[in-house]
Amino acid sequence: MKAITIARKAREELNAVTLTVKGLTCEYRKQPLGIDTVHPRFSWKLESTERGALQTGYRLQVTTTQDGFEKPLWDTGQITNGDSIQIPYEGPALRSRTRYYYRIQVWDNNGQPSPWSETDWWETALLFADEWQAEWISADPLLHDPDDEASPLLRKEFEVVGEIASARLYATAAGVYEIHLNGRRVGEDLMTPGWTSYSDRLQYQTYDVTEELRQGANALGASLGSGWYKGELVWENSKNHYGNVRALLLQLHIIRTDGSEQFITSNPSWKVSTGALLASEIYHGEVYDARLEPRGWHKPGFDDSAWSSAVEIVPGVGKLVAQENLPVRVTERISPVSLIQTPNGETVLDYGQNLVGRIRLQLDLPAGTTITLYHAEILDRDGNFYTGNLRSAKQMLTYTSAGNAKESYAAAFSFYGFRYVKLEGYPGQELGEVSLEGFVAEVMHTDMPETGRFECSSGLINQLFSNIQWGQRGNFLDVPTDCPQRNERLGWTGDAQVFVRTAAFNYDVGLFFAKWLRDLRADQQPDGGVPFIIPDVLHQHSSSAWGDAAVICPWTIYQCYGDKRMLEEQFDSMKAWVEYIRRQGEDEYLWNTGFHFGDWLGLDAKEGSYVGATPSDLIATAFYAYSASLVRDAAVVLGKATEAKRYAELAERVRAAFSREFITPGGRLAAPTQTAHALVLAFGLVEGSARERTAKELNKLVTNQEFHLTTGFVGTPYLCFALSDNGYHETALKLLLQESYPSWLYSVNKGATTIWEHWDGVKPDGTFWSDDMNSYNHYAYGAIGEWMYRRVAGIDMDESQPAYRAIRIEPLFGGEKLTYAKAELDSPYGLIRSEWRRESGKLGLEIEVPVNTTATVRLPVADAGSILESGLPIGEAGGIELMESEEGFISVRVGSGCYSFVLKDEALAAEVQSVS
Q1: What is the pLDDT of residue 2?
Q2: DSSP 433
Q3: Which residues form the Bacterial alpha-L-rhamnosidase N-terminal domain (predicted)?
Q4: Hey, CA dihedral for 602, 608, 610, 613, is it positive or negative?
């Protein structure tokens, strides 16, 4: 009897549930409020205490009440597959303005079901255009000059009768807006409704205002700014790119406890005036006179008899869509680290970090006191405040006090790129009597979840990584801008495509790029040409490497997030770009005509030129071949066999034409530049002995420069990959660790806290590059981050299974100065971790593999017997499968869990420093 009991217990333990469901998301978000996707997609993550845990099935239930799972609206039943991301809703048609609840159960690889997940929810917005009952309203242009810079205030009082069950506010603007309800600001989102291709579509936001409403008298107030819609953009001193009138569209839906509803909408019954915000521009900042603030204007009972009536207008915008991207918010607050009196007698606050955001003033000053804040990135070599690189952007905030105790203000409709803030007009500032607590910096950017981290034994490299992250934060403010400070701040396509993979390591950018790529598709020219910037306010196109963002970005986002729907959305745009290239010039397989940025800011450029020495037709044709191959790959993923065949053939013909045009019969590349060699290797344009020769020549080009680079925007992202992947990893490491100009660490040693636009933005003698184009927050060269994650730390994927379902852990150990490196990536399936350390004559590698994935681990040893895992010989360790061996390397496959490998052969471990 005892034996039977023991046997039964053993079976129960064998069949015990190993999985728990966590991290539920709907359309990339947790509990999204107000989306208009009619087939939203669900994803979840799994936890297990066991190695090698997999999901073999799932069940998903949806209901309209939190306790309604007894009779769900939709029940998939048990689906037998391992998919746990991007699962689309396929139940009955969704209703507008409805909260849906969902939960998930999974089965493990023993066939055992998990407990149900916790219940989560999403809420639909307005799914149909005819549900908008509101009217666009603005100030009467006969009474309020649309060119007056003062921001309009709009208000409406209304009565609520009956007990309130819930209330939702839907709002957008031609311009940018803030809403107040009964004196309180609604939501935390900034710069709403964001920047889209307004003629194609305009976002609106959804807010839960149930707690702010009350029975009886209520008041809504809205303030409007020019923003991207009407404000000054580009460097041409031009405004009104989309329209010349700021306007509001707002709809408040109130549901009473008895089920009845009340609607409050924007219409001409609203009242309009102006207030304290006298000027607001993205480039120039704001002018605010607190004495002019109509006290209580957004509360019930305010006397608005002197205000004029709003008028209905029809702005030039496209369809209304619910918020597509994550919103811009304040994500961090930083106090000044010091107060500086410069040699010129200026009073300057130093925040210790180049950032993007605004200053939150907390003041107690006499009425009528006017202070002005000037924002800048850097001090000159004498230590004086420097704004030359801002060009015409003023980056100012002028504030006049009302004389009230503890006044608080931060710019509403502008943002600034800065590390330093100069004060003028602050009482006692010349004596250093400045309260630093009154000038806290609020960091602003799209509120992307952080997903990646990197660290190594070099403090300088760790600072470089911090600079990369801060550069992304500063420039991912609703669109991927090139820089956040001067009179530009535009969505340059070339910058976005070179950085997109690094961006997807650092932060969750799935929604961010999906939104921006819709703008690219909308602004793409009828002939397939792609504008230089997206959204397009420059009206110029098309250049190789810049326009290729139409192909590279959607493919990269698909790889990183498994987002097939986004890839499908962009596929026609991808094809259109490649077909545009095909029609250029006399030879359809070469691109040797038209304007190109070339290897922008390459250091091998001729004197006085911004364009590097690599021939533009070589760059253009190389990217042509690469984009054609990615369109082929996308067609395969989407099951488009005809297109897959067409673009496979095209890619081969372009590759052959490239070889004829740019590679000699002996295998020598015609252009003796680092960029040319890096592109040819990275894009697979040479094979066999020609590839070996090209790699050898690239290594020679770098070593001849004493391990300095000469590449610009186009070549830099591929340079270290081309070296590491072709036997010259040590050279790549020496490039990374190089401290003298030109190098990544040169700027770090010069005190940079973000990535510079120019390798020598500050010259060795402390002088600056030209004022006309010298940003100190320009993320393009931060693309080295991708190589740090994928080659130094070794976190990569098998691209045939996107979103890191099949992981590759392949760190390239080496470099005398690097004794350890580690990275983490919170992938769609869960946390991936790789950490290697070389000490005491041994090499250790610790990894973590998330549930429902597998990983291939490549180790630099010749004999499996020299490997320990968790203290055991690898053959005795559980959950490890020996796959294959090659000269000097062994690969193993592992399932989920944590693993600790030690290469115990001390002689071999010592040689690892030279392994590439």
Answers
A1: 46
A2: -
A3: 163-332
A4: negative
Q: Are 379 and 451 in contact (CB under 8 A)?
A: no
- Give the torsion through C-alpha atoms of 351, 352, 356, 361, to 10 deg: -10
Sign of the C-alpha dihedral, residues 803, 809, 814, 817? positive
Asked whether this chain's domains 2-124 and 328-446 adopt the same fold, the reply is no
CATH 2.60.40.10, applies to 2-124: yes
Q: What is the DSSP string of 688-710?
A: HHHHHHHHHHHHHHHHHTTS---
Region at 12 (left for phi over 0; alpha for psi -120 to 50; beta for the rest): alpha
Instruction: Convert the pLDDT of each residue in 84-110 to its tens digit.
Output: 999 999 999 999 999 999 999 999 999
CATH code of the region 328-446: 2.60.120.260
For residues 731 and 703, the answer to whether their CB atoms sit within 8 Å is yes
User: Helix 564-582 vs helix 641-662: angle between axes, to the nearest 10 degrees?
Assistant: 40
Phi-psi region of 515 (alpha: psi -120 to 50; beta: other; left: phi over 0): alpha
Angle at 445 between CA 45 and CA 534, to 5 degrees: 100
Domain parsing of the chain, residue ranges: 2-124, 132-322, 328-446, 452-793, 797-914
Positions of E strands within 684-769: none
pLDDT of residue 317: 96
What local confidence, expressed as pLDDT, does residue 772 receive?
86
Query: How many residues make up the chain in this entry?
Result: 916
Residue 17: per-residue pLDDT: 59
Interhelix angle 493-506/716-724, nearest 10 degrees: 50
Residue 490's φ and ψ, nearest 5 degrees, are -115, 155
The CATH topology of domain 132-322 is Jelly Rolls (2.60.120)
CA–CA separation, 621 and 618 (whole Å): 5
How far is it, in rounded angstroms, from Cα 53 to Cα 55?
7
DSSP codes of every residue in 591-660: ---S----SBT-TTPPTT-SB-SS-HHHHHHHHHHHHHHHHHHHHHHTT-HHHHHHHHHHHHHHHHHHHH
| 251, HSE (Cβ side, Cα atoms, 13 Å) | 18
Reported CATH class of domain 797-914? mainly beta
Predicted confidence (pLDDT) per residue in 213-237, tens digit: 999 999 999 999 999 999 999 988 8
> What is the pLDDT of the chain when averaged over all its residues?
94
Tell me the pTM: 0.95
Burial pattern 731-756, b for ≥16 Cβ within 10 A else e, equals bbbbbbbbeebbbbbbbbebebbbbb
SS (H, E, C) 103-149: EEEEEECCCCECCCCCCEEEEECCCCHHHCCCCCEECCCCCCCCCCC
Which of 679-701 are b and which e, b meaning 16 or more Cβ less than 10 Å from the residue's Cβ?
Answer: bbbbbebbeeebbebbbebbbeb
Q: The tokens of 818 are what?
A: 């690097």
What is the CATH code for 452-793? 1.50.10.10
359-386 as b/e: b if 16+ CB within 10 A: bbbebebeeebebbbbbbbbbbeeeebb
* Residue recorded with tokens 């997999």: 54
Percent of the chain with pLDDT over 90: 90
- Residues serving a catalytic function are 488, 757
